[in-house]
Amino acid sequence: MTLRAALDDFKRNLGASTRFPGERRTTEGYFSGLAGRTVHVGRDGRLRDFSYPLTGIYGIDRSRFGVRIDDDLHWFDNCRTTNQRYVGDTALVETTVSGPGFELERLDLSLEADHVTHVSVLEGDVDALVSFVAFAPGGREDRIGQLVHDDHGVVEVYHRDEHDFLASAPTFEQVAGQLPERLPDVLDEKPAVYPNGDETGQYEDGRLGGYVLGFVPLEDEGATVCSRLTRRPDSSATVEAVAERTRTLGTAPAVRAAARSVPTRPKTDAMETAVDDLRVLEVLSSERGSRIAGPDFDPHFEYSGGYGYTWFRDDAEIARFLLESEGPLGLDLETTHEHSAAFYADTQLEDGTWPHRVWPDDGTLAPGWANDRIGGDGVDYQADQSASVLSFLAAYATTGDERAAAVEPVIERGIEGLDETLTDEGLAIPCQNAWENMAGQFTHTTATFLHAYASVANAPVDDALQGHASERADTVYDALDTLWNEDGGSYALRRHGGVLDDRLDSSTFALVDAHEAYDAIGTIDDTRRERLRNHIDTTLEGLFRETEAVAGLIRFEGDDWRTREQTAEKIWTVSTAWGANAAATAASVLEDDDYYATARSLLAELCPGGSLCLESGYLPEQVFDDGTPDSATPLGWPHALRLATVAQLHEAGELAGLEVPSPADD
User: Fold this and answer.
1) 3-state DSSP call for residue 188?
2) Where are the domains positioned within the chain?
3) What is the pLDDT of residue 199?
């Protein structure tokens, strides 16, 4: 998101009660693109690339699409979108738009480095498709230029490394470049109008900006626009290639066929949400399999630390949930698991731990605030992230001898790193928490340590490593008693300055998975079982909130982040999904089938028709009390939790009580 785009949004949303001015929201619309270029197709017809973290290429910053009828322009954002959906289990986005005297069907599909938009007129006399695309190669909106390749009707926008191309079928009848808004426009209190009409009259205006306005005549009531993102291309060859690709995809049947030709996501008969979850996780994945936490709606760090990076917590939890869901749902995710294991091996630090966050496309260190294991010995380190990676690697090792041999050296170094961040009493060192907003010794962090040590102790690794991990697991298991709050009947959020912070925290649901892992190598005594039961019941009840519009779990007591004018804590999808998953696991660990009903009740809010699930099937990170979705959308972590919970309930034969609408026929 360029600064001009951020300032424009700031002006448009200043004073909003449930919007943060200056962000690039994805709470409406759909994403097209699998394991590579990721393009958001807004419900208003606007395209925006969210590809930079996944590919290192920036692409489309802003856009508008419309039609020309009798010299009048009708922009889709001023028209009515009557339907928008994915076509089957593909990443093809189909949108129906109605305007004054016309109705049309629009298809959007990302294929590798290309994005294709095809429009078919269903009703009315339309003269031309109008496309306005603002490219920002290299994330720049200055010092960029344009070339118009007249022979093929292709526009090339370039900075240094990145070159972006735009073509159409039929060929543009008219295409012109424009400069971005001038400084007076940027500083004006009113939002900018773009495209901004005629050129200023300076001869260079059309060649020194990233804005491209094109008119595409219709042929057989259809028109296509295609963009391609590249690095330092052979321009002539790329021009011919993108022109040919555009011609090839110049009809609706051709676009639909191309969507079906892309390798489909693994299918399952368990529930339609599983297909949605797998598609979302691919949308958020790079070619090497590493994932961004979510689309980066706040790249200027105005209200957050950004989301377009790989956190090892989110990524490893997702990887483990995919591994655990594979069997129950009949999936084939072998390549996905291999990519995850290889990525963790490549990004492990010398001390055996993993950094705060990295760029997903190449694994290099990304901007972050919790890297004290690299540059110091302070509390700005998130120890649970390394533990989560170890839990996945240990589970991955159990799936085959070759896999175990490949990851054992990584696991061994990881255990050394975990040992260095474990205190003598068995709690994790004072560090940052899972929510990255406080420091201390957290129940959640300690639970992830228990899970990691127990998983390694149960993995097919060297006997000495197994034995060491088992001893450490026993130590951590015993140390959890120091975090028990007898008065509240729950485990504390943290110990800080020698004092228990007894607030309820949804991240402590990690205790359930941790005890399930420990149960495979040790004995859970009756006192611990009773405490675990009390903690689950107290936390589920204490964090549950319901309004007229939404129901689910808040993150932790006293959470005021991104609440705007709302006085109470917001409901989080990851917390709600975590609660559902913990309840499903507790049914097995505590041998109490009543927890299945709790799991289904929370899961229902996360499924189509539920208050936390969008029309797209996406799960936003947070929801305001009035039902307005907020923050990263879709967020990968709750999607993986939803998938894993469905897998658990399906395997236990406990999905029957959950009502989910059937998908519409294509």
Assistant:
1) coil
2) 3-196+204-261, 272-651
3) 53
How many angstroms separate the CA atoms of 64 and 139, rounded? 19
Q: How far apart are CA 266 and CA 375, in angstroms?
A: 42
Q: 331-366 burial, b for 16+ CB within 10 Å, e for fewer?
A: bebeebbebbbbbbeebbbeebbbbbbbbbbebeeb
Render pLDDT for 572-596 as a digit per residue (tens, 0 to 9).
999 999 999 999 999 999 999 999 9
Q: Is 201 helix (H, G, I), strand (E, B) or coil?
A: coil
Q: Is the pLDDT of residue 616 over 70?
A: yes
Q: Reply yes or no on domain 272-651 having CATH 3.40.50.300.
A: no
Task: Decide yes or no: CATH 2.70.98.10 for domain 3-196+204-261.
Answer: yes
Closest CA to 382 of 444, 469, 470: 444
**DSSP letter assigned to residue 42:** -
Predicted pLDDT of residue 662:
46
Whether residue 268 has pLDDT greater than 80: no
Q: What is the three-class DSSP state of 123?
A: strand
Task: Calculate mean pLDDT across residues 361-383.
Answer: 94
Closest CA to 322 of 284, 269, 277, 286: 277
Please tell me the distance from the alpha carbon of residue 526 to that of residue 524, in angstroms, as a whole number: 7
pLDDT tens readout for residues 521-543? 999 999 999 999 999 999 999 99
* Residue 631 structure tokens: 């923050």
Report how far residue 639's alpha carbon sits from residue 645's, in angstroms, rounded to the nearest whole number. 10
CB 634 within 8 A of CB 294: yes
Facing residues of 93 across strands?
86, 108
pLDDT at 362 over 60: yes
DSSP count for the chain of H helices, then E strands: 18, 29
What CA–CA distance (Å, rounded) separates 300 from 298? 6
- Counting residues of the chain whose pLDDT is more than 70, the rounded percentage is 97
* Rounded CA separation 192/180 (Å): 10
- The better pLDDT of the pair 134, 176 is held by 134
If you count them, how many residues does the chain have?
A: 666
Q: How far apart are alpha carbons 226 and 173 in whole angstroms?
A: 15
Q: Could you give the angle at which helices 383-397 and 312-329 cross, rounded to 10 degrees?
A: 30
CB 135 within 8 A of CB 60: yes
Question: Which range has the worst mean pLDDT, 219-223, 268-272, 342-346, 484-488?
Answer: 268-272
Q: Is 267 exposed, middle or buried (0-12, 13-18, 19+ CB in 10 A)?
A: middle
DSSP code of residue 556: B
Mean pLDDT of the chain: 94
The neighbouring-strand residues paired with 291 are 285
Name the amino acid, one letter, at 62.
R
**What is the rounded average pLDDT of the residues 231-249?**
94
Q: What six digits make up the tokens of 665?
A: 């026929």
The token pair at 351 is: 């001390």
